[in-house]
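target protein:
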Amino acid sequence: MSFYRNAVWFVKGLQEYTKSGYEAAAKQFNTGDLDVNLSGRSFVITGANSGIGKATAHEIAKRGKAKSMSYDSESDLMWFYVVSLSVQNVHVHIVDMSSARQVWEFAESFSKSNSIHVLINNAGCMVNQKELTEEGVEKNFATNTLGTFILTTALIPALKQAQDPRVITVSSGGMLVQKMKVDDLQSEKGTFDGTMAYAQNKRQQVILTERWASQHKEIHFSSMHPGWADTPAVQLSMPDFHAKMKNKLRTESMGADTVVWLAVSAVASNQPSGLFFQDRMAVPTHLPLALTRSSPADEEKLQAILEQLAHKFKP
């Protein structure tokens, strides 16, 4: 089954996730979808110092006529930078998204003195050698899943006070090859594989998005796949893949397009909450006959485990 999933996924990727896949899909885009007035809207974007996060922040800031964005984009710690921006101002916050306590502290401090209309969970990492954080949590899971969970749940009360609130989580099409392993969320069993741990995290994100959508109907939730983009994170974490696919990879702006569309367009907010998007279209979260669906009980268990972990690290 693993060979089948990987083969079907890779063929799909060559057709859809590459630069040519984006260019084909873009022929159907309505350019007017992004002609929006962002007056009074505020955004929080994680992992915004590099790659898709930085491209997203620039596109939103440009539409809001925000002041120039200036910060160190050379750091290889993609998950450290959180950008908050409104129509006229851009603020950079240094937050280690793999540190549950830091995420809690940022969310609670930020929500006390700021409004928020849109949260974009973009920060992520693919650590190929098993590594634990100072809190004893596997680094990929800590950043991609637990950090995202804490930030989102901590900001939900503030989001509910806003008009047209949205949460967008940047997942990955790699999750299509994985069925969630709810009894091994931190990849402790067997030989550690950073790529598969990452794909598991991205599956977890999609499940969480679906659950949040059903539980918090005042907020529009979505997850998305940016395609295969040429970003510093891909170069760092997947050097062989990058070397082989370099000429076929999307630009960072192409990868960010659907994130921006989900964050600002009226068309996106009219879609049902909880869906998974690729190139401005809702797409299935499972490959045909891949047997990757989890039971409702396992999905509930995922959320319960994360709630317990989050509470453990709450200051």
Summary: DSSP finds eleven helices and eight strands in the chain. The two ends are 43 Å apart (CA to CA).
